[in-house]
User: What shape does this take?
Amino acid sequence: MNASTVDRPIFFVGMPRSGTTLVFEAVAAHEDLAWLSQHVQRAPRIPAVAALSRLTGATHRMRRSVGRSDQLRPSLERLRIGPVEAYGFWEDCCGEKFRYDYLLGVKASPEEREEVRSRISRVMRYHGKSRFAAKVTGPGRIAYLTSIFPDARFVHVIRDGRAVVSSLLRVRFWRERNRMNEPAWRNGLTAEDLADWDRYDRSALALAAVQWRRVVETTRAEGERVAADRYGEIHYEQFVGSPHSVLEAVEGFCELASSASAERFLDSRFELRDMNLQWRTRFDADEVEILDELIGPTLSGVGYSLDHPDDAPLPVLRRAHGAGT
Assistant: This one.
């Protein structure tokens, strides 16, 4: 397999704490998909370590289960193999900008393109799979990734922004990386975003809210602009409520055959709980009012109701230009 044979790779994108891990890991159990494991993350220049991922196909006991990503895994689970975000891999290929920049209007250099395609091709070969899938959270980076993979498919996982903000303000990786006080990514927030943050005394709540708004809006805009026939949206709430229906829709959108392996993995190795109720008790009335003001129009634009969040009908999968599934 050479670099030109990386066919229709699949990227799951979305704001952190939006359910990207749940959806990605379910689809990654598909028999045809290679992915970047924790071993590739630790040794990004040695794609041969991807051969260890073959063990997950030999026995389901070697495949890591999916639980709460804000909780520590038991020791045995940490030894099992599973897909990870692998920013060490992307940063080694593309530089630290891939981790920390919106990359709006940025294309990969010829050298970056060749390096990424070559390494992923080798990961696929050592993993013994014909397709590739990855998860990238934060800014969608759709134009940048399309410059590397013109036939890539993008699945944007969206969750109610009020629940996302609530979760971000409590998880360790957000608090310990100074993301309560500084934007998490560069070259994306607009003058309007910064003014909104200032208007609420540069609070952590307002900062998380304007970043959810900007990530969702720029990802949607990039999808429509550069990948209209390759971009689709799903909602965390739909996946938690009807995971098999969403899995089937994603497989169809990505041109994957229906996977018995993914179905079994979803049934046996998942902890699925709707965590959206918590924001309503964690935020007081003033905080809810701030969120409604900052992200209300964006929430409505992606299908959420401000007054009756449980009643808003959400599509199983929305394609670009509103062609829902």
Remarks:
- The radius of gyration is 19 Å.
